[in-house]
Amino acid sequence: MLHPISVIRQRKRALVLFTLTVLFFIFIDALISRVALSSFSNLEIKLEVEHEDRLTVYYRSGHRAHFSDKRTVFSEPLPTGKPTQASINLRDRIARNIRLDPGDTHGRVKIYGMRLTGHFGPPLQLDAEDIHERFIPNQAIENFTLHSDHVQFDIHGADPQLVLKDELVMQNRFMSLVLPLVFTLAFYLAISHFGRSSFPAFYDLSHHKSSANINYASLDGIRGIAVLLVLLDHSWGVFTGAGTGGVWIFFVLSGFLLAIPFVKRPELAVSGQYMNEYLLRRLKRIVPMYYFFIVITYFLFGKFDAGAIRHLLFLQGDGHLWTIPQEMLFYLFLPFIMAGNYLLFRGRPVLIVISLAVLMVLANLYLDKSVISMHGNIVRPAFVGVFLCGILFSYLYHGVFVSSTSQALQSPWFKHAASLLGIVTLVLFVLLSTDTVLEPKTYLALQYPGWFGLTAGMLILLVLISPRSLYDRLLSWLPLRAMGLVGFSFYLIHPIIITLVKGMQDYYLGYRMDAVPQLIVVLLITYFLSAFTYSYIERPFLKLAKKQAN
Q1: Are residues 387 and 356 part of one domain?
Q2: Taking the C-alpha atoms of 320, 321, 326 and 329 in order, what is their torsion angle to the nearest 10 degrees?
Q3: Measured distance CA(121)–CA(175) in Å, rounded
Q4: What is the value of pTM for the model shown?
Q5: Same domain, 149 and 272
Q6: Is residue 179 domain-resident?
């Protein structure tokens, strides 16, 4: 006999499966109806005009969309005084709603009927009675009357229009019923056997495994914040500039995590074998997903040309890809930095912290300004100083705080103070990263990368020295961790999804969603795609790198 708790869980699971299945059916049915069954290839209309003009047809995807000159087709010039069969190519566009403009020349027009054809259903035939019932004339049209075999009206004003008051949909029982049922059945079979353990991204999330293979759940939360800042910047104008702050978090977090083995075992800095393993792990971490993205992008939006080759060689980084060559350059810098610290200071954390602080200041003042620049569609400095912030805070935490025996650093009041300071620092970091707080628009994050790098380092340090605090619980929140876990894939993929969502709205809907709904749609689509690429592209190589290291 099943335990009552097991019965409750099974019922909840059944209810969730049922709800998701119904919602999926509704979605597929609506998608087929609004896209496939509303896409028309040709309009044939029989009419007679007293004036020499041509017929203009406006089409839109529904009543919420707007008629626009971008969505118009024209007939050939119409002969006068006799019934004419005009054929108009609708280009396989969604014409769920149409508007007929019979020209501006005053005179009488007779419409006998029209026929719309598409690829997914029988032709849609409208006779004179249908036209009279379903089309609404504007004020420029008078005497809109039905006769035995035609609709007749007179044009007595500028810009005459006949607007369809309902919607055009082809009738196809297979596509409107059978096909959604087939897709829904496949969906049900897929999700009914789906569990957290069967999908790597969800498995790692539920088992508190981080993308960095360390047990710091809150750090994935910080990476999730960075991902959201980049997404908000690129998809919602209210947060313009926030993406730069997100990038600084990525850079600092990268430096912080990569420095941990060298802090705990300083002798690794002069180990040729470890350095070889380190470089191979970095390549396995970045290259597979990055190469996959480059190939997909160039095949989707262009041709595979010299620009693609330069991207594959990390010599160019257009758009948001400008960060990737910076990452690779830093990976090459890191062994020399660590070797120098070890040879000069023999693993003494305090001296290393001082030397890194000096090096960071020099890099921010000189190295990142003029010595090194990375090329793409925008020339940017290498921002070595921002990465150094991450290394600095890694030594501060693992080399100083962890080894400290001070009672003050271990006391509850210190943890609560660090938690409060962390929350305040996070809020200020987000607000000052945008261009909406200060006027005129300043883009502080781009102007002062060094200061924002230090602030990002503080975000990391404060959460690690205040475990189980409010700040730690905030950054360990499941949605933030979920975003952070797939952060690299999310960062690479999100511009494509933004472009496609906006383009499909323009193409199919004729209007764009408001900022918040669009953000939610982009967020959900990008996350699930990123979860797949993390599970089946990133993660296998991460596991391989970890296995080889052990």
Answers
A1: yes
A2: 180
A3: 9
A4: 0.74
A5: no
A6: no
3-state secondary structure of 512: coil
Return d(Cα 355, Cα 40) in angstroms, integer: 69
Q: What is the mean pLDDT of residues 521-530?
A: 90
The rounded radius of gyration (Å) of the Cα atoms in the chain is 31
* 238 backbone φψ class: left, alpha, beta (φ>0; ψ -120 to 50): alpha
The whole-chain average pLDDT of the chain stands at 84
Domain region containing 93:
37-173
Residue type, 420: L
3 and 118 fall within a common domain? no
Q: What does DSSP assign to residue 451?
A: H
User: Do 368 and 278 share a domain, yes or no?
Assistant: yes
**E strand residue ranges, 28-96:** 39-49, 56-60, 72-74, 84-94
- pLDDT at position 210: 60
d(CA 165, CA 142): 18
CATH of the domain at 104: 2.60.60
Let me know whether 517 and 387 are in one domain: yes
pLDDT tens digits along 329-378: 889 889 999 999 889 888 788 888 899 999 888 888 877 655 555 555 55
Q: How many domains does the chain have?
A: 3
Instruction: For residue 195, give both structure tokens.
Output: 């569990």
Indicate if 291 and 427 belong to the same structural domain. Answer: yes
Report, as an integer, the average pLDDT of 242-268. 92
253 with 105, same domain? no
Token duo for residue 162: 């006949």
- Euclidean distance between the first and the last CA atom of the chain, given in angstroms as a whole number: 45
For residues 341 and 353, the answer to whether their CB atoms sit within 8 Å is: no
In this predicted structure, the answer to whether residue 222 has a pLDDT above a threshold of 70 is yes
pLDDT of residue 214: 54
Distance between CA atoms of residues 474 and 488, nearest Å: 21
Give the three-state DSSP class for 208. Answer: coil
Whether residues 22 and 50 share a domain: the answer is no
Q: What is the pLDDT of residues 39-90, one digit of tens each?
A: 888 999 999 988 778 899 999 887 777 888 888 898 888 888 888 899 999 8
Would you place residue 245 in the very low, low, confident or very high pLDDT band (cuts 50, 70, 90)? very high
Give the three-state DSSP class for 143.
Answer: strand
